[in-house]
Specification:
Blueprint lengths: L3 H16 L3 H13 L4 H21 L5 H18 L13 E6 L7 H13 L2 E4 L6 H11 L3 E5 L3 H4 L2 H11 L4 E5 L5 H7 L3 E3 L2 H22 L5
Helix pairs in contact: 1-2, 1-3, 1-4, 2-4, 3-4, 5-10, 6-8
């Protein structure tokens, strides 16, 4: 196991590699993390993802724009490709299935991909519908997979308006399915207004919210004596 100083240095290298969209630094940092005996999950979350969260803040402050975001994402995935095979699934006490996608009319998927990655590492079964997803596809995929959770992402106000339609349709077919929304124009207030069960402002919160919601759903099912197929 690496000493604390070495560990901090490697995590900073990974974080800064993402912020500076330096793919080579992320690859080197990822390999150094493995060579030094760092936990791969920790390297991902406290290194790469921490960097991407800072990139998100730079984007909001209009210091970074879409081209920089895309290059930062490439750097993140360069490190992730090396670390992911060494990840043990996080033992969070909850296992669930999630349908995820960016709603129709929106091709932004960086945030969605980060959330998907965190679900993967946490041991969820993930059904990724991709981006610009027709609204009915979310409903159909939830029914097909009997997923515990559906995550809807949107980065534009114009595409966000499709979210309440999806929520209404899914809840009509399966009232017990949990639905989470996320993305720049969304908010907790909108989630409450539209009948979503959760809202996540970033990838880390998405994972926390998902665990909380799936845990609640499991408890509800146990109380009702309903067993998951």
């Amino acid at each position: 196991m690496a000493d604390e100083a070495k560990k901090k240095e490697i995590l900073e290298k990974l974080k800064n590699g993402v912020i500076q969209y330096d793919e080579d630094a992320c690859k080197e940092g990822a390999q150094e993390a493995l060579d030094a005996g760092l936990d791969a999950n920790e390297a991902i979350f406290d290194g790469l993802v921490a960097g991407m969260e800072e990139v998100g803040r730079l984007f909001e402050a209009q210091e970074y724009f879409v081209p920089e975001i895309l290059m930062c994402a490439d750097a993140l995935y360069a490190g992730l490709d090396i670390l992911k095979p060494h990840c043990g699934q996080m033992d969070l006490g909850i296992k669930g299935a999630v349908v995820i996608g960016t709603v129709e009319g929106d091709v932004h998927d960086i945030g969605k991909n980060l959330v998907k990655m965190m679900f993967d590492v946490a041991g969820f079964t993930v059904y990724d519908l991709g981006r610009d997803v027709p609204l009915d596809n979310f409903v159909e995929e939830q029914l097909r997979t009997d997923s515990d959770l559906v995550c809807l992402s949107a980065m534009m106000t114009t595409s966000m308006i499709g979210m309440p339609k999806v929520i209404e349709k899914i809840k009509a077919k399966n009232p017990n399915c949990m639905i989470m929304i996320g993305g720049a124009p969304t908010s907790k207030e909108l989630a409450d207004k539209w009948g979503a069960d959760g809202y996540a402002e970033d990838a880390s919160n998405a994972l926390k919210e998902a665990i909380k919601m799936v845990g609640f759903l499991r408890k509800l099912r146990e109380e009702k004596g309903v067993q998951k197929k």
